[in-house]
Amino acid sequence: ASANRAFRFPTYTDLYYTTTESHTSDPNLKPEYATTFEAGANFSRGALQINSALYYRFGKGMIDWIRPFATAENPRPKWQSAHADINAMGGDIQAQYAFSNCFLRKVQLSYSGGTQDRKEIEGYDSRYAMDYLKHKIVFGLHHNIYKRLNVSWNALWQDRNGSYALNNEKRYYEAFLVLDARLQWENEPVRVFVDFNNIFDRQYADFGGIIQAGRWIRTGIRLQL
């Protein structure tokens, strides 16, 4: 278990970044403060390992950039630096089992989640404070195919809170499922691999409203000296 208190000074951008078209900063912003309490527990028996943690954070004067949504009277609103009091809580749990004398190598499952007492600012888009991870589940499976050839599967399901603006239109984050795989041939000290990312070519946006890449492939060779 642990407890800590931290603070962050406003950046130069938070204080002084003002433009005629897009941003209005506040030179009177004060530092933000956060007090966090955390507790965790680990369990290990043979090939099984489980790790878990919970936290609660009191946020005072958290610095954010907010912007009113576009209207006919104001089609290009500006981002404004501002303060927000936000309390958040969440946690995660991870489990792993390593096999021996089996074509299966390892199975992994993890969950992370969080929530906070401030959900949305009516009429405004928030760049940081409202953008947080609600649920994230990751499942990993590693197994042999033939002799030194093996494959790793990684499935990710994620649900993020918040919204973002695209062409001045408000859009909420949508939950998504992504599947990745790595095909690898190992003969120490050489490893040859091919990564298949976003196999189902899922189109989705993540933190900051950034649209992520679709299906893509990467290959390489690793040499351990």
- The stretches of 5 or more residues where confidence is low (pLDDT under 50) are none
Largest sheet: 12 strands, mixed
Average pLDDT for all residues: 90
Number of separate helices: 1
User: Radius of gyration, Cα only, in angstroms?
Assistant: 22 Å
Gist of the model:
This protein has about 220 residues and is mainly β. Helix content is about 0%, strand content about 65%.
Structural key phrases:
225 residues, mainly beta, 12-stranded mixed sheet, two-stranded antiparallel ribbon, 1 helix, 16 strands, globular
What would you say this structure looks like, in words?
The protein is mostly beta strands. The protein has one helix at 12-16; strands spanning 2-8, 23-24, 32-45, 48-68, 79-98, 104-116, 124-126, 132-146, 149-161, 163-166, 169-172, 176-187, 190-197, 205-206, 210-211, 216-223. Strands 1, 2, 3, 4, 5, 6, 7, 8, 9, 12, 13 and 16 form a 12-stranded mixed β-sheet that branches. The protein has a two-stranded antiparallel ribbon with strand order 10-11. The two termini are 40 Å apart.
Task: List the SSEs and their pairings.
Blueprint: E1 2-8, H1 12-16, E2 23-24, E3 32-45, E4 48-68, E5 79-98, E6 104-116, E7 124-126, E8 132-146, E9 149-161, E10 163-166, E11 169-172, E12 176-187, E13 190-197, E14 205-206, E15 210-211, E16 216-223
